What we know:
By secondary structure, this protein is of the alpha+beta class. It has 13 helices and 16 strands. The longest helix has 28 residues, at 406-433. The N and C termini lie far apart (78 Å).
Amino acid sequence: MSTTQELMARVKADNVKFISLQFTDVTGAVKSVDIPVELLPSALEDGVWFDGSSIEGFARIQESDMRLVLNPETYAVLPWSPEERKRARIFCDIYRPDGEPFEGDPRGRLKRFLQKVKDELGWVYNVGPEPEFFLFKPRENGHLHPVPHDVGSYFDFSANDEAARVRAELMEALISMGLTVEMGHHEVALGQHEIDFRFADALTTADNVVTMKYTVKAIANQHGLIASFMPKPVYGINGSGMHCHQSIFDVKGENLFFDAHDPYHLSKVAYEFIAGQLKHARALAAVVAPTVNSYKRLVPGYEAPVYISWAQINRSALIRIPRYTEGKSKATRLELRFPDPSANPYLAFLVMLAAGLDGVKNKLQAPPPMNNVNLYELSEEERAAKGVGELPSTLSEALEELAKNEVLKEALGEQLYKSFTRAKLAEVEEYRLRVTDWEIERYLERA
């Protein structure tokens, strides 16, 4: 049977009534166009036209017509939709009227970059993310100030924990949508949780991150809870990160980061990849930690990395090497620890790969590892003596670094770079002008 026939048979068996055609804007916000299931065959054949002029980072008004091209392999039923109006989703790529790919499409840009790497090098970039999030109960006055709704801590177990029951339902929903969930557990902070799913190629993983975020929000809402992927929603406790485990396989499935004879079981390619990501870390921050709130997480004292270094047994390092298990060469990987779940995963994985590949291309040498060194306890002079730099302290500073970084700008392309920085500079300016609760409390009654 053809792909269309197979998909239609599955849609019928699932009793789906509507198809949500999904894509993201440049900031990572999910956009969708819903069509009745009867129109799916023509949508698969011809695509679906839409007006892109009002979407962040898309077209100007005079060139607004755009076409969604469906990827049927991304079909999944939305498990929270009611039976009588059951919906499924399909991720789409975006094309211009002339048939050319739209360069401002984050998913399409990552897809083409990965294909280029595969065609030219025979390499597949894999990512396994660990997105953290909070579950909150709304306050009775309707304010959305976060209030943790459980009292658990890291890996805590409670037979009567409402959050554990919700987390189990979340995992069940994600599994039904095709994700291979490996673990779900309570994180360090009150109300904080993590659901990990198996690594896959970067495009599939980015789709999975998008799926996970809106699934968590939808299921939490059904329980009267608010799910937040905000990097630092509560002052004084740990924020939410999205540590990303990375590896590169060849087309035969061999892990190119593994070397049995190296003390850390890392290959030359792995060391060069580390060197590339460390070199570009300050510019990477703008994309992998892309909100003004992200930089309230990236501070010393809350397990978030701040200093630009790598190590095997040091969680204050920017890149950590998980310990090798004998016979598990495919599990050799690099854990990048400063991305957070507010990032657009398509753009984040794109620039992470570009930074690493620059290290490989130019045969950069990784600095010595910072094992058994608490970087938070070193003075600025001591860190400088060890050649350890520091991440930007604000989104504005990170955007300045990105503006100077030709490698990452080339990976993004002119359209995405301009639209991303335009959106983020607007965010910085709005934040600068906004009067916060902290300012009111500190200054309102002061003489």
